[in-house]
Design brief:
By secondary structure, the protein is mostly beta strands. The protein contains three helices and 29 strands. The relative contact order is 0.12.
Length: 483
């Protein structure tokens, strides 16, 4: 498993030689070729309704650890870990021992309904990895010196006989984490918290010069923190064999409540637990659209929703396979504007294919969906004529308006008197298919009364589904005389 090297902020900010970093990365790349998929060593969601499957629990005086059915991430049950906040150092956790391994990954879902973090240095750890009787790594929340509560990894980089702890904080790096930013710690929501730890190996054990240990934190499947700078110290510890989950430790806090679900331990990345991602909606609106700069439907918005957080890629191609738009991201929704400003090539009339592909956050379980998106800058051709240009309603006569459309259009037909006032509307923005059509006017107004004698103008407004106005005239105007 390769641990990514990342920008980190740490209190003591010790320098780390570039040569050692390169050696570690080169060794990691080489060792990754030999990596095999490891099995999950332990998985438990408290669905037995108790602590069956765990090795046990641990609580300090006044704290509790129990299984409840009032809140869960999956299934019906979760673990509830409570501290009363009366002591400076408190614990309430369940723990599991597994076969000792030089590389261990832990994943759990936590829900903090009450946080006792109030002052700088206050901390809550949801996971602790142990080597024998030594705690080698912690993951959770802590208040930094700026007064903000942040995600943090605390790494034991000392000797078993002389431990030394270093905090490694999450700091957003614009080119890596934006968008989206890692969610800030907050109450009353579930987080997937995954920690990957690798014991440093000395050169005699097969590691590179400078050792090769490291640690990663992922939150909701998104990489958050890495540290590979203390390999020489980490290597002194034996492999990890026990993991504590829940309110594994809190320090300096008032009363805290943490719920735990979907705990797992493995020897490689575990990932989030959730449904297989699926596309629940995918559309473009308006469709068709007309990017001709007239301010009407000049762009289309391609959007989609998913049933869970997913990685996505959107590609729009023409009939020849040329890529006109390519975007990617992650989240539970997708929305992108396609216009002359965002396209790779000038948009010409035609039908394009928009394909949306998604995977889960680890790149597994791929699926895709495609829709057709039409670009239409061509204006519809509309012709109109009357059956009688002069008629007498009082004698029982009517006249017909005949018109032809080159494509489906939204059509409005109104009659106006010589003063320019509308007296009758026969169609109001009705979607009419292509072809020839007709309407009858009996010489009556919208009130049902016969209109006075005189000249009237019938006006036909037509725009296609892309917003293009009819040609050769808009509106088409025809003179009709009522006698």
């Amino acid at each position: 498993m390769i641990f990514p090297f990342a920008w980190i902020k740490e209190h003591n900010r010790k320098a780390f030689p570039i040569v050692i970093v390169l050696a570690i990365l080169l060794w990691s790349m080489a060792s990754a070729i030999q990596t095999v998929e490891a099995a999950v060593l332990f998985s438990n969601g408290f669905e037995s309704g108790n602590f069956n499957g765990w090795n046990g629990r641990g609580t300090s005086t006044g704290e509790t650890a129990r299984v409840v059915n009032t809140l869960s991430h999956h299934g019906s049950y979760s673990g509830r870990f409570y501290s009363n906040g009366n002591g400076n150092y408190e614990t309430a956790y369940s723990y599991k021992s597994v076969a000792a391994s030089d590389e261990v990954w832990t994943r759990c879902y936590i829900y903090v309904s009450r946080s006792g973090i109030n002052s700088v240095g206050d901390r809550i750890f949801f996971t602790i990895l142990r080597s024998g009787t030594d705690n080698v790594a912690y993951a959770g929340w802590k208040m930094d010196t700026d007064g903000k509560i942040k995600w943090v990894l605390t790494v034991n980089t000392g000797l078993p006989s002389n431990p030394s702890y270093h905090d490694v904080w999450y700091v957003a790096v614009p080119d890596r984490d934006s968008p989206p930013q890692l969610p800030s710690p907050s109450l009353n929501r579930w987080y997937s918290v995954e920690v990957g730890w690798r014991r440093g190996l000395s050169p005699s054990e097969g590691g590179p010069m400078g050792y090769s240990g490291g640690i990663d934190l992922y939150v909701n499947g998104q990489w958050a923190i890495s540290d590979i700078r203390y390999q020489a110290s980490i290597q002194y510890y034996n492999p990890v064999s026990t993991v504590r989950f829940g309110l594994a430790e809190q320090y300096g806090c008032t009363s805290t409540i943490v719920y735990l679900d979907c705990s797992a331990i493995g020897t490689s990345r575990i990932g989030i637990q959730g449904p297989v991602p699926a596309i629940t909606s995918f559309s473009a609106s308006p469709n068709p659209f007309t990017p001709n700069g007239n301010g009407i439907n000049d762009y289309t918005t391609i959007s989609s929703t998913f049933n869970t957080v997913a990685k996505w890629q959107l590609i729009v191609k023409n009939a020849l396979g040329q890529v006109y738009l390519s975007n990617w991201g992650d989240g539970q929704t997708m929305k992108r504007v396609w216009s002359e400003e965002t396209t790779s090539y000038p948009l010409v009339d035609g039908t394009y294919t928009a394909t949306l592909s998604i995977t889960d956050v680890l790149g597994n379980n791929p699926s895709s969906r495609s829709i057709a998106v039409t670009v239409s800058n061509a204006r519809p051709t509309v012709y109109a004529w009357m059956s009688y240009y002069s008629f007498s309603p009082s004698a029982g006569q009517v006249t017909g308006l005949y018109y032809s459309l080159s494509e489906s259009c939204y059509v409005t037909v109104r009659f106006y008197n010589s003063a320019g006032s509308s007296v009758r509307t026969l169609l109001n923005n009705a979607l009419i298919p292509s072809g020839e059509h007709s309407l009858i006017w009996d010489g009556r107004s919208s009130t049902g009364a016969t209109v006075p004698l005189g000249d009237y103008r019938v006006r036909l407004y037509a725009t296609d589904m892309s917003g293009n106005r009819a040609t050769p005239y808009y509106p088409i105007t025809i003179l009709v005389t009522v006698t």
